[in-house]
Amino acid sequence: MSAWLDTLSGIEALEVAEFDATLVAGFEARFARLPAEAARNVNFYVPTFKAYATSEIAGCGRSAWPAVSITGPECKLQCDHCKAKLLESMIPATTPEALWRVVNEQIAAGARGMLLTGGSNHRDEVEYGPFFATIRRIKDAFPAFRIAMHTALVTRDQARRIEEAGVDAAMLDVIGAQDTVTQVYHLRRPVVDFEISLAHLAGTSLKVVPHIVIGLHYGRLLGEWNALEMIRRHRPAALVLVVSMPFYAAETRPFAVPGAREVGRFFMDARAALPDIPVLLGCARPPGRAKVEIDAYAVMAGLSGIAHPSDGTVALAARLGRSVRVTPTCCSIAVGDEVLALDDGAGALQLDLDEYLRRDAAARHAQSSAARRLGRIPVVTA
Ligand code: SF4
Questions:
Q1: Residue among 74, 79, 124, 174 whose CB has most ligand 1 atoms within 8 A, to mutate
Q2: What is the mean pLDDT of residues 104-130?
Q3: CATH of the domain spanning 3-50+57-370, picked from 3.30.450.40, 3.30.70.1130, 2.60.120.10, 3.20.20.70
Q4: Are 225 and 212 in contact (CB under 8 A)?
Q5: What pLDDT is recorded for position 54?
Q6: Residue list, ligand 1 pocket, CB within 6 Å
Q7: Shortest CA distance to 240 belongs to which of 196, 202, 284?
Q8: Which of 3, 91, 202, 279 is least crowded, fewest Cβ atoms below 10 Å from its Cβ?
């Protein structure tokens, strides 16, 4: 048994998982070749580590990083994995005046930044044109207020206008397979347009944070490696990986849940392709056993940050000798992760691992005692 398999089997919270021995051996061999900095540090984005904070941490609520849609719930593309449902929970601000009002209200309620997004037109463009002057006004009035913009596809001129408006981070889902563009996004544009947009954004001073949605082709991995290659050519500030969670897919076009093993293999390739920039695992990934396996693979692949880790993930990182930091943040919309992750760890806390592991073991013991007690209580369902 490899040393890492041994480590995995010694962590109680990971007992529910089944790890691929060949893949784990591959992680172990590759990890030794990663640049020391990348291999050493891992940051967990969690709202629940307050007990370990050495200083007071601001309350964590949806209002810290609200998501604002300039089209409300409207989107022309109606992608098969989303059907515009992602927009429904966002705050609508469909005119520049509404955006100014919403931002002022959110700042008064404690917001530190926002994700600015909107539904796309038929060309996968979000029509920000009328809003740029207001975005500039927001940044002039509240320079510390962070704006991460989901840009969608852009021209060179649009990228320059986003930069001039003072946006902090530009985010773009990069798709690498024409079939995915055509079938899942219903978009009649060539796949190369994603790289051209990336190049336009990378040609500005914006922090460019592309995303790859793993399993976007109905749960299968198809264009992910091509997307990675496109991103590698333009050296972004960070790469965020998320795993497709097609809760909104129509029954007629169902999505499979991507296999943890395939996702883990892609983590390894992403880390190898971008050894010296942060590669982060965002909030979106399937729940349950798959999440436990995916999170452990993320640690073993040497990813730089993991949002909302499953039980056992922090213990695994500690036992593999990684230096664990914790950024106490929610990721109701994942924007805080990315922006904070680019702050060179500002706001992150070094975790006292001995203390963490001791509390973890105690909590686990208490839980299993409670479960044993509950085992004797009849369960009544309505
Ligand atoms: S373009 Fe974006 S918001 Fe519109 S359906 Fe596709 S993923 Fe959802």
A1: 79
A2: 94
A3: 3.20.20.70
A4: no
A5: 31
A6: 75, 77-79, 82, 84, 86-87, 119-120
A7: 284
A8: 3
